């Protein structure tokens, strides 16, 4: 082989290595970006969704915090998705059973118990995810994190549920004592 062929082979090998390195870098960054795009839905209708980008931009997560998010999210996301799918399936099965000509109350009770167990598991893994995120946040980020997760833990309609006729300061006016269904008022 002459000297020019060796030079051409060396250049080709160098270009191949350079191309492979470039492709590897692109794939790595795409993987990291896609990991940031996995979204957590904080409302039943899927409207309130947060992702890694949300944590980076809204909470101002740095690279170390983002790595903690990715690690926690890789554990949380698949488990939550499985539980949500199971919960939705149980609800549909319950609804179908309720609409039968002769619903099986034993089956309905069993489905209700399973639904409760799945919901409890979902809350537990959500709590764990939240605590992992809270652990890497500074005080100002914790405030935003609280606001972000509030829809999962607070239901605005809870204020409207006053006990069906019982309540302190209900529709007759504030600070008027407990009013029972028959109009009798007692002071606490």
Give the rounded overall mean pLDDT: 76
Strand content: under 5%
N-to-C order of helices and strands: HEEHHHHEE
End-to-end distance: 104 Å
Poorly predicted parts: 35-39, 41-48, 164-188
Number of strands: 4
- Whole-number total of structural domains: 1
In which order are the strands of the major sheet placed? 1-2
Top keywords for this entry?
188 residues, mainly alpha, two-stranded antiparallel sheet, disordered C terminus, 66% helix, two-stranded antiparallel ribbon, elongated
Can you describe what's shown?
- The chain has five helices and four strands, in the order αββααααββ.
- It has 188 residues and is mainly alpha-helical.
- The chain has one domain.
- It has a two-stranded antiparallel ribbon with strand order 1-2. The protein has a two-stranded antiparallel sheet with strand order 3-4.
- Strand 3 and strand 4 form a beta hairpin.
- The radius of gyration is 28 Å and the shape is elongated.
- The C terminus is likely disordered.
């Amino acid at each position: 082989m002459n000297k020019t062929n060796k030079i051409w082979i060396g250049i080709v090998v160098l270009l191949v290595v350079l191309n492979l390195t470039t492709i590897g870098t692109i794939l790595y960054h795409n993987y990291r970006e896609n990991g940031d795009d996995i979204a957590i839905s904080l409302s039943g209708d899927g409207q309130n969704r947060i992702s890694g980008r949300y944590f980076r931009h809204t909470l101002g997560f740095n690279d170390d915090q983002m790595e903690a998010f990715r690690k926690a999210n890789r554990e949380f996301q698949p488990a939550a998705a499985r539980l949500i799918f199971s919960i939705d399936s149980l609800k549909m099965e319950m609804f179908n059973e309720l609409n039968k000509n002769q619903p099986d109350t034993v089956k309905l009770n069993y489905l209700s118990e399973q639904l409760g167990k799945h919901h409890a598991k979902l809350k537990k893994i959500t709590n764990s995810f939240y605590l992992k995120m809270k652990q890497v946040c500074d005080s100002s980020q914790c405030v935003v994190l609280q606001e972000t997760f509030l829809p999962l833990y607070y239901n605005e309609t809870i204020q409207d549920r006053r006990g069906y006729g019982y309540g302190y300061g209900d529709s007759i006016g504030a600070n008027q004592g407990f009013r029972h269904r028959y109009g009798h008022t007692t002071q606490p």
